[in-house]
Amino acid sequence: MPPLIIGHRGASAVAPENTMAAFREAIAVGADGIEFDVRLTRDGVPVIIHDSTLRRTAQLPHRIADLTWSELQGVDQTVPGLDELLTLFESNQLLMYLEIKCDSPSERIPLAEACCQQIDQHSAKERVIVGSFDLPVLKFVRDIDPEIRTAASFELALSTASPLSDQRILDEAASVGASALALHHRLARKRLVEKAKLTHMWIAVWTVDDPVWIERARDLGIDALITNDPAAMLAAR
Fold it and tell me: CATH assignment of 4-236?
């Protein structure tokens, strides 16, 4: 089976990341879905942005967690609310990979609750996978709504003192009830993928823009590739 092609923060190679323009572009080029990041505003509104501040995307020092939804719209109108994105996707059947971003443990439950509530309101449970590097938040998502699929995200260990072994990755994912893995491309090892498949895990690999990954994904049994340039990857598939 060819892998699904998922637009990383939308079609972020050609439009500003995590904006409605990037998501519409991903839809237009025929992506199988999109990946995006969600944080909470000070008044509890889930919004789509990767960083904890507006420094990189809008050259502003504001922290998302310090702004209300109204204040955020006043300083950067390109940051969409989760509700707006889910409304857009009511007109298609594409996959949505929602990455929860937490800066502290205190954010886990409010953010999990807000995301689950909106997913339910938009009847999107069958098409959304909720992922996070902050694995404890996935357990809260499972507790709130067991019908929502969750994905444990893993990146390369910053220190060689604690390398991520195949078994450690699988054990950590299982400990929070995740049914999927999102792996940095350098973690997409053949043995790990094989072991994960034995437990019926759905596997995505990020972030890959080289078309060589199309054939590699077929060979390894990887289900989805998360890419900045879905159009180019689709052309190679």
Answer: 3.20.20.190
